[in-house]
Amino acid sequence: MDSLPLHVCHVHKLSILLNRAYLLVHSAALAFLIYYRVSFLFQVPNTRTAPVLPWLLVFASELLLSFIWLLGQAFRWRPVTRTVFPERIPEDDKLPAIDVFICTTDPDKEPTVVVMNTVLSAMALDYPPEKLHVYLSDDGGSPLTFHGIREAWRFARYWLPFCRRYGIKTGCPELYFSALADDIGFGSSEFMIQRQKTKERYEMMKDSITQARERCGQGHTRSNTARDHPSVVEVMQDESNYDTVPVLADKTKMPLLVYVSREKRPTHPHHFKAGALNVLQRVSSIISNSPYILVLDCDMYCNDPTSARKAMCFHLDPKVSNSLAFVQFPQRFHNISKNDIYDSQLRSVFSVQWEGLDGLQGPVLSGTCFYMKRVSLYGSTIDEDMDLEELKRSFGSSDEVIKSVRQIYKPNRPPVHMKLTLYKWGKEVGFLYDSVVEDYSTGFRLHCKGWTSVYCDPSRPQFLGNGTTSLNDLLIQGTRWSTGLIDVCFSKFCPLIYGPPRNISILETMCYGELAFTPLYCLPLWCFATIPQLCLLNGIPLYPKVSNSFFVVYLPTYVFVFLSAISKHLYEVLLIGGSFQTMQNEQRVWMIKSVTCHLYGSLDSIMKKIGMRESSFMPTNKVDDDERAKLYQVGKFDFQTSNMFLLPMVALVILNTAAFVGGLVRVIFVGDWDKMFVQLFISWYVVFMNLPIIEGMIIRKDKGRIQPSVTQLSVIMSILFLSLGSIIISIVSY
């Protein structure tokens, strides 16, 4: 048994062949198009068919799109998948301990019942209970959350024995007692009796939390001093007046459960989620000091109790464990509709990109669902005889924390020889404070130090959460991510600058670079949604005539680039069971996000860098909204969002509709279709991909439609843009 492998890596040779062939052919086509653009600049001014300014803008956009595309091909260089054999890991008494970190901040956006379901699912992991320690960080210092964890601890005395005795896989009681559970149980009379009793206890827990919320009042469930409160650390224990002990719970061992609310003061930065995780790391180092850490979002519950054992298949493998920092599982969601109009499942990330990264140096740290080796967060090499004062400058003044650092450290890390001096939490120790995407920053720096990671995606989702089911939540979340990525992109830690001299491969660097540059899609997409249309209405061609001899070569190449990109996208979608509609939804969301949240996230980052704004973090709303969920399930966009998001995308759709109609009239009556064919096609494609927006403006009458006032304001914005743009073009044409 000891000689058998704990995991097997499968290299997708056919995908590698297809991806590299596509890269070669598509790159050659792009090179030809770039050659055509450059040749225009060397034409005699009198022979040029278009003003230089719009031509340069389109050319710059094509270059930026090509550059980001090229970086993204590194994801597809060597895709792999893995199979694990958790039955081959050591016996329970030889397994290492695990600390589970769960973070919540606002019970109004992250319902307490949802958070407690995540806590209970973590406690129900199939792992020795004496080696499992669950920590809940309440960053809002909410009395409701504190009440909720006490109620969850009481209910756990019933829930955990029930799960263990009957082998329940769905550790989340809310989902288990719903119609969505796939392991209802054995069906015996004894089981059904125990199930009903456990369900009644669960309903009691929910009622207690609901009543506490009503006493607090909506909007007042956070502490009155959410930004100004002392620290609270409480280890949950059985109460002396505990009413009755259930039959199944007589000799059941319980994992440790700890409530943590860190000290927060208005005058001191708290660094959002990264700060909360670092506090949990310091607190847990004194209480349990487990060598491995599982990090979960407050709504991402454990859907398979064996995830810890699967992760140990890698962490306990001597062939990979020395340099392995973390095992990343995909984020899956239980509320995704078949149509998934918002691309909430993040298909490309977890089914394509992360598999590709796994064939390089490992996936990006993804914020949740990962098992981290604690020592990997301790910066560089730590020596047993290192000066005490030097350690205190790095980890703080707590003697207990310093003791835990020395205790957990083992010299089994990659060959990095950087002296530990003046490191501080959030800079070189723990989760990093460089941006609000602390997972991206921390994972990148770990890979730069020589650490690796692996991606494990079993057939049964190991973790399930709530996906975004409204346009508003999607764009708010996207703005936050874009802000954090641009923070990194325009800093000294930009992957393309910081990565190459260090212990990270070129291909891994390109993948990190593609993610960091993703918000910059806003620039070329805004250009392609406005400049060709403006020139079309003013009779200015940006592409060669159909009758031009250059066009005989250019048009097939242009069509090939477009069709090859679409075909490759469709192939990847179909490969995992998607459809043409899935591809269309993903492209539409990409367009919408590029002209809205990518733009605002980039501007927000720039304003912070010049001191015009302070860093902020708005958690994604986890509260179920029945009306919005219903619209999502039937495949209709919910346009109940800020005008800041609505106006740009509505105005651009109106502009492209006007350009297409006006261009079509021009082609019919003026007869210059040979000059305007490509620009006319671009306008049509933008309109076609965004038909749901037109439907929301004109056809729909429900609550989720686009309000007439927004449409009217967007029309005014489009007219102003066309008027000013036409004036500018007429000026630069002379």
Automatic annotation (TrEMBL):
Localization per record: Endomembrane system
The UniProt record lists the keyword Mitochondrion: no
Superkingdom, taxonomy of origin: Eukaryota
Pfam families: Cellulose_synt
GO cellular component: endomembrane system; membrane
Entry's Gene Ontology molecular function annotations: cellulose synthase (UDP-forming) activity
Record flagged with keyword Transport: no
Residues the record lists as binding UDP-alpha-D-glucose: 109-110, 139
Residues annotated as catalytic: 139, 439
Binding site for Mn(2+): 273, 297
Example GO BP: cellulose biosynthetic process
Coiled-coil portions: none
Alphabetized UniProt keyword annotations: Cell wall biogenesis/degradation, Glycosyltransferase, Membrane, Transferase, Transmembrane, Transmembrane helix
PANTHER family: X-BOX TRANSCRIPTION FACTOR-RELATED
Name used for this protein in its record: Cellulose synthase-like protein G2
Annotated organism of origin: Carya illinoinensis
